[in-house]
TrEMBL record, chain A:
PANTHER family, per the entry: ACYLTRANSFERASE, TEICHOIC ACID D-ALANYLTRANSFERASE
Protein name: MBOAT family protein
Primary localization class, coarse: membrane
InterPro entries reported for this sequence: MB_O-acyltransferase (IPR051085), MBOAT_fam (IPR004299)
Domain of life the protein comes from: Bacteria
Source organism per UniProt: Bradyrhizobium niftali
Automatic annotation (TrEMBL), chain B:
Name of the molecule in the record: Acyl carrier protein
Family matches, as SUPFAM superfamilies: ACP-like
Organism listed in the record: Bradyrhizobium niftali
Domain Carrier as annotated: residue spans: 1-79
Length: 479, 79
């Protein structure tokens, strides 16, 4: 069920009310389990569509159970390979078309995130970090938690277990109001900002592919505007979704991890990924980057090589993370762009530190000119790389890039970097002067003021939805 | 091994790996407080600590360390 549908709201209200009827832990776990099952069932039109997902879960559970008694590295390697092979087959990656596919349509939503959770449990059970035996119902509640099912956040099992149907959920009027405020703010991001950005993007995108001979400047501006609007759409769609999910979690006693931390204020590509889709970045850091760096350092122990091993590890990690986003060839390009961004960023840091020394390099990164330049370049690179996500067919992608040419791409890059750098420079100057007068701040924070703010947001949501004649879908569910 | 001994030995490992002779560690010290303690030198530190203390760390332990205090507690638990 779509997050913006009345059905989802009714379902969520039903689960929350049912959850709080009793403080019995088994009862609450039963409510959560049924909630997950109903949520997943809402995507099905035939029972057969669920069978591949069930098989994937059973395989994952069997691997976890085996690893809990047979903690050998060989068993872990075989289990990881088996689960990955099953995932690749079910996800229908276009490069593995020759492997064949199941002869019926089936559910693939949520599969990527279930994969991350299963791999995390397997590695942690193998290393002894998770020593308790995970029962099949707990495994289902964790891997298929309806709040995180479609697109995360990727919570660690250890954190999930601590809040799994717990008896005491500390909720007072203020906490409930804050949770509902965040839900409404999430819908506002989703339905107002993201939807308007998508509306404008959908208007501009076809013009980039239209026949004719537009001027160079017009084509560059069109591309820069479309790519920037898509980024705004993606961010507000995804972070609005996360606001709804995380705030709903509070009402069910779950403290889910944050996924965004002001990503567009990042001063480097590597910092950007510490602020954007944070639980995904952290997962890759824990289970790919760190083990890979350890392996490389064990093979090449010379300290002088550390930075270069890091450049390689960053490239591999971001390549895999990029490729994970889709099933077509253009996502390999996206992965290569992510890998290139991360490794060029690291090389730049290494070169500057070597040339200027650590202290002078740090001083340089604190200067105003560098801060706005770095923010502009970081965001511009990400905005242009996201082109892969809105041109998932390689033929469209190459046609667009070919039409722009190196000069067009460079001009768009410079234009977006300048615009975002200027935006931040202005925002940092104007924002501190925008403090509301004391009497307005008091009125805003009063009981009536807070409720009026909430009601106003809901009225704007209604107005914009009526204006756009459509309810936006969640963009990240495709990944 | 008590905590004071672990801190002394750990400080020596940190100084050696990060090449900072006057580095002082407290329980609250984080990567943000130490020049050069980034994601790469973190792994080099983990490898050096593993060798020096004769302990092994798991993926979630390596990724989940938030400060020196947690590092010391983990070493104490394992050694």
């Amino acid at each position: 069920m779509s997050l913006t549908s009345p059905l989802f709201f009714a379902f969520l209200a039903g689960v929350i009310l049912a959850y709080h009827i009793s403080e019995s832990v088994p009862y609450r776990r039963l409510v959560l389990g049924f909630g997950n099952a109903i949520f997943i069932a809402s995507y099905l039109t035939d029972y057969i569509q669920i069978l591949p997902l069930l098989a994937f879960l059973l395989l994952g559970y069997a691997c976890v159970s085996i690893l809990s008694v047979w903690k050998s590295s060989l068993a872990l390697g075989l289990a990881v390979l088996g689960v990955l092979a099953c995932y690749v087959f079910l996800k229908r990656f276009s490069f593995f078309d020759d492997l064949g596919r199941l002869p019926f349509p089936y559910l693939t939503i949520g599969l990527s995130y279930i994969l991350f959770r299963i791999l995390h449990i397997m590695v942690d059970v193998h290393s002894g970090d998770l020593e308790e035996r995970i029962g099949p119902t707990a495994f289902f509640r964790y891997t298929c938690n309806f709040l995180c099912f479609v697109s995360g956040p990727i919570q660690r099992y250890q954190d999930f277990r601590a809040a799994d149907g717990i008896a005491v959920v500390k909720l007072d009027a203020d906490a409930v109001f804050r949770a509902f405020s965040r839900v409404v703010a999430g819908y506002a991001k989703f339905v107002i900002i993201a939807a308007v950005a998508e509306y404008a993007f959908s208007f501009l995108k076809p013009q980039l592919f239209q026949a004719g001979d537009p001027s160079f400047a017009r084509l560059c501006m069109l591309y820069a505007a479309a790519a920037s609007l898509y980024t705004v759409y993606l961010y507000y769609n995804f972070s609005g979704y996360m606001d709804i999910v995380l705030a709903s979690g509070v009402l069910l006693g779950q403290t889910l991890p944050e996924n965004f931390d002001r990503p567009f204020s990042a001063r480097s590509f590597l910092e950007f990924w510490q602020r954007w889709h944070m639980t995904l970045s952290q997962w890759f850091k824990f289970y790919l980057f760190n083990p890979l760096v350890m392996l490389l350092m064990s093979c090449f122990p010379a300290p002088a090589l550390t930075a270069y091993l890091g450049v390689f590890a960053f490239f591999v990690t971001f390549l895999v993370m990029g490729v994970w986003h889709g099933t077509t060839a253009v996502f390999v390009v996206y992965g290569l762009l992510m890998g290139a961004g991360a490794s060029i960023n690291k090389l730049w840091q290494v070169a500057c530190a070597e040339r200027l020394g650590k202290k002078r390099y740090r001083t340089m990164t604190e200067t105003l000119g560098y801060v706005y330049f770095a923010r502009g370049v970081t965001i511009s690179y990400f905005v242009l790389a996201l082109t892969c996500l809105w041109t998932p067919e390689l033929s469209d992608f190459t046609r667009l890039i070919g039409r722009l040419g190196p000069a067009g791409m460079s001009a768009a890059f410079a234009g977006i970097a300048f615009a975002f750098g200027l935006f931040w420079w202005l925002a940092d100057r104007v924002a501190p002067r925008l403090a509301a007068p004391a009497f307005l701040a008091t009125a805003r924070d009063s009981l009536v003021g807070r409720n009026l703010t909430l009601a106003s947001q809901m009225m704007v949501i209604v107005a914009v939805t009526a204006l756009l004649h459509k309810s936006p879908d969640f963009v990240y569910k495709a990944f | 091994m008590d905590q004071a001994q672990i801190y002394a030995k750990l400080t020596s490992v940190f100084r050696d790996v990060l090449d900072e002779d006057d580095l002082a560690l407290t329980a609250a010290t984080t990567a943000d407080d130490v020049d050069g303690w980034d994601s790469l030198s973190h792994i080099r530190l983990v490898l050096a600590v593993s060798k020096s203390f004769g302990v092994k760390f798991s993926a979630s332990e390596i990724g989940g360390l938030k400060n020196v205090g947690e590092f010391v507690e983990l070493i104490q638990k394992k050694s």
